[in-house]
Every structure is written in C-alpha cells, then in structure tokens.
Amino acid sequence: MAQISLHDFVSQETKRQPHVFYAQLRSVGPLHYVEGLNTWILTTYEDALFVLKDPRFVKDRKKVLEPQQDERNTLQEVIFQNMLTVDPPDHTRLRRLVSKAFTPRMIEQLRPRVQQIADELLDEVQEKGSMDLIMDFAYPLPITVISEMLGIPVADRKSFRAWTQAIVNMQHEESKVALEAFLHYIENFLAEKRIHPGNDLTSGLVRVEEDGDQLSESELVSMIFLLIVAGHETTVNLLGNGTLALLQHPDQMRLLRDNPSLLPTAVEELLRYTAPVGLSDERWASEDIPLHGEVIRKGEQVVAALIAANADAQQFSDPTVLDITRQENQHLAFGKGIHFCLGAPLARLEGQIAFGTLLRRLPDLRLAIEPERLTWNNNPMIRGLTSLPLAF
Q1: Rounded mean pLDDT of the chain?
Q2: Fold of 6-391
Q3: Whole-model pTM above 0.90?
C-alpha cells in the first residue's frame, strides 16, 4: 500500500467496505502515520487496548503542546472542556456529575418510553410503505430520548440535526457557523434552566454548579454539547449501518426476526461489525513511546482504528462474518479504560428496541435503491449513511 492520506479514510469505497481497507492497512503493518490527519493510527486489537488504556496517552493536549502549536480556536476551546477531552482528576469529577443518569438501572427505566417513541415513529410512516430510515427513525429516536433526559423543549430540537451534520462533516465555514449557533443555543438554554429548573439532567447540572462543585460555565456548556451530540449521533449510525447490514445478510435478519431473544447479542455484533465509530478520539503522547520499530514522539497524536481492531482475527473468529449469535465479543465500539462510553447502556437499549420494533412491525423491510447508490458521511472518525431509503 502506498503512503496513506486523509482521503483514504473518507472515500466512499472505504466507507462502503471498511473491512477491506483496514485489512490491507493491517497487512502492511500495525502502525501508520497519516498525513492530513496528522496522527499515528494503530490497527490491531492489542494495540488499540494499549492506546486506550495507557495513561501516557493523555486527552488534554495542553499538557504536551506549546501554546503556539495548538491550532484550536476560541469556539473549539469551549467544546473541549468535557469529560471526553480531559484527564484525571478533572475527568473523574466531570464524569461523576453525570454518571448516575446513565447507570444500567437508570437507563432500563427508560425502556417503556423508548418503545413508545419507536412505535410512534413507525406509526407515522407505516401507511406510506416507504421511509428514509435515517430521517424518519434512526435520528428522531435517540435525539428525542436525550433531549427529554436533558429537558430540551420539542420545538428547539429541529435545528440539532443540521448543526450536528455540519460539525461532523467538517466543512470548515459551515462547521464554524453551526458550532456558533449550537453553543449560543446551549448558553440561552442554560440561562432559562437557571430561572425555570425542572426535573431533568440539565437542571441537576446547573444546581451542581451553583452548589460549588467546581463546574464552570464553559464546562457546563461543553458537557451539554457533548451529551446532545454523543447522545444521538453514534446511535443514528448504529441504527442506519445495522439495518443496512441486516438487509444485506437476510439469513441473519430472518434469524433475528424469528428469535427476538437474540437482540442483545445482535446489537453487540452490529456494533462490532458496522463500526458506527471508526476511529477512537485522539490522544497525545506525554513522552516518547517506542512502538513497532517507530517512536511516537511527545506531543504527537495517536488514535486507534476501532474498525480494524474489531475485525482482528487474533481476537475474533471469522471477524468479517456477521454472526448475531456471536458469544465471545469483547468489541471496542464503546472504547475501553476510563473513557469508556458513558452512554453505552443507553445506546444498547435504543438499539435493541429499534431493531426489534423494525423487524416486528415491518416484516417486508427492503432497500428502496441499489446499495451502490447509498452515500456515506465524510468524517474519518464516524461511519454513517446520509440516508437509507427503505420500502415495506
């Protein structure tokens, strides 16, 4: 394989068949430096665990970069003050403030409401005989759930998809405008919650700040931003990618339809196989670290290719086969270590309910266009369809 670049990670061919690209990458070697992304990428399961868990790889770039090296603008600084982008002890403090809302027990209590939302969304389209799964189901389901948890009014949610997509697709000017609008909304939303608190997660976080638990205004804005975006974007891709995978593997789709008890293992396998998150969020080497005959220098960026790790034959038997009955499935779709995805229980619940409801209510579900005409986003980290037209 010739020198790889950012284009290789965002091309439609890579997005369509990620296992082919990452298998080629791993066959050349376990460690690659990617121009354009300006990062080292690790491609094996073992190395992914290493970078996700070793404390020498830090999340706060200010610890390792000189001020003149940090290219983030003021807007980006605001959103990089949450639990995903800091190290202990700040990480420990911030995660503690929201973790109680995302325990498996708390999330399980949402099951009836998530089921109700899924049914109402399908009620809207069932008589039409067709839908765009992304816009009609995969997006509104998780955005409704996280918005209700945060206490966001229904009328305010209509802009979130456009803002998130502009930010995720990384078109510089569009992203900047969307980010400004999004943060402005959150600031106004928080001001309203201070005046009219409710029984929701946002009001709880505002009260924590006022009780002196060291949650600054910028940390609060950044936390709400993270919870909205992370609370729906990756689940949208799980539902979109997962539905497409089932349609392309009709034997697995029939098996799941006939055996709803397989939904928990099916969701785990779809997380592993369809890679809603293709690359981990970045870490920074806090010292020179020798690895595979190279040296990752202090201040250099490192990411784990979760797609590649989750298809590593050293860890998974027949990794390129979709098997919804797979038992040994310690995939890394939610990361690992102290930054393991806080929302994993919620994503799992939403996935189980969404796939179960789709297969139960729409037994004749099928693609409405040829698979070759489907288009994918152009973010190297996140793998998701722009739309998924279905008929039933």
Answers
A1: 93
A2: Cytochrome p450 (1.10.630)
A3: yes
